[in-house]
Amino acid sequence: MTIESTERTLDIREIDGPPFDDIVATLESLERGGQLRLIVPFEPVPLYDELHDRGFAHESERREGDVWHVRIEHV
Protein backbone atom coordinates (compact mmCIF):
# COMPACT_ATOMS: atom_id res chain seq x y z
CA MET A 1 0.00 0.00 0.00
CA THR A 2 1.41 3.37 -1.03
CA ILE A 3 0.66 6.50 0.94
CA GLU A 4 0.94 9.69 -1.08
CA SER A 5 2.41 12.64 0.70
CA THR A 6 0.81 15.98 0.04
CA GLU A 7 2.76 19.15 0.59
CA ARG A 8 1.19 22.51 1.22
CA THR A 9 2.99 25.83 1.32
CA LEU A 10 2.33 28.67 3.74
CA ASP A 11 4.30 31.86 3.16
CA ILE A 12 3.86 33.91 6.32
CA ARG A 13 5.39 36.94 4.63
CA GLU A 14 1.99 37.31 2.96
CA ILE A 15 0.04 37.26 6.25
CA ASP A 16 -1.01 40.56 7.77
CA GLY A 17 -0.57 40.31 11.53
CA PRO A 18 0.73 37.52 13.80
CA PRO A 19 0.99 34.27 11.83
CA PHE A 20 0.70 31.74 14.69
CA ASP A 21 -3.05 31.08 14.33
CA ASP A 22 -2.68 30.58 10.57
CA ILE A 23 0.18 28.16 11.09
CA VAL A 24 -1.72 26.14 13.72
CA ALA A 25 -4.87 25.99 11.57
CA THR A 26 -2.85 24.68 8.64
CA LEU A 27 -1.07 22.11 10.82
CA GLU A 28 -4.38 20.87 12.23
CA SER A 29 -5.66 20.23 8.72
CA LEU A 30 -2.69 18.03 7.76
CA GLU A 31 -3.30 14.31 7.63
CA ARG A 32 -0.64 11.82 8.76
CA GLY A 33 2.19 11.92 6.26
CA GLY A 34 1.13 15.37 5.08
CA GLN A 35 3.75 18.07 4.80
CA LEU A 36 3.79 21.82 5.15
CA ARG A 37 6.49 24.04 3.72
CA LEU A 38 6.55 27.14 5.86
CA ILE A 39 8.33 30.16 4.37
CA VAL A 40 9.39 32.75 6.93
CA PRO A 41 11.69 35.79 7.05
CA PHE A 42 13.43 34.49 10.21
CA GLU A 43 14.21 31.15 11.84
CA PRO A 44 11.06 30.33 13.85
CA VAL A 45 12.88 28.81 16.83
CA PRO A 46 9.93 29.26 19.26
CA LEU A 47 7.77 27.20 16.90
CA TYR A 48 10.02 24.12 17.10
CA ASP A 49 8.95 23.09 20.62
CA GLU A 50 5.31 23.58 19.67
CA LEU A 51 5.76 21.35 16.62
CA HIS A 52 7.39 18.65 18.72
CA ASP A 53 4.62 18.81 21.34
CA ARG A 54 1.97 18.40 18.62
CA GLY A 55 3.66 15.39 16.98
CA PHE A 56 5.32 17.05 14.00
CA ALA A 57 8.85 16.66 12.69
CA HIS A 58 10.65 19.50 10.96
CA GLU A 59 13.73 20.42 8.94
CA SER A 60 14.85 24.01 8.53
CA GLU A 61 16.91 25.53 5.76
CA ARG A 62 18.18 29.08 5.47
CA ARG A 63 18.02 30.30 1.90
CA GLU A 64 19.25 33.33 0.03
CA GLY A 65 17.99 36.66 1.30
CA ASP A 66 17.60 35.45 4.92
CA VAL A 67 14.46 33.52 4.05
CA TRP A 68 13.85 30.27 5.93
CA HIS A 69 12.04 27.23 4.57
CA VAL A 70 10.78 24.88 7.26
CA ARG A 71 9.48 21.53 6.06
CA ILE A 72 7.03 20.20 8.62
CA GLU A 73 5.69 16.65 8.51
CA HIS A 74 2.79 15.18 10.43
CA VAL A 75 4.24 11.92 11.76
List the helices and strands and how they pair.
Layout: E1 7-11, H1 20-28, E2 35-40, H2 45-53, E3 56-63, E4 67-74
Parallel strand pairs: 1-2
Antiparallel strand pairs: 2-4, 3-4
Q: How would you describe this protein?
A:
This protein is of the alpha+beta class. It has a single domain, classed as Translation Initiation Factor IF3 (2-Layer Sandwich). It is built from two helices and four strands; from the N terminus they run βαβαββ. It has helices at about 20-30, 45-55, and strands at about 5-10, 35-40, 55-65, 65-75. A four-stranded mixed sheet has the order 1-2-4-3, covered by helices on one side. Strand 1, helix 1 and strand 2 (about 35-40) form a beta-alpha-beta unit. The chain is globular, with a radius of gyration of 12 Å. The model has no long low-confidence stretch (mean pLDDT about 90).
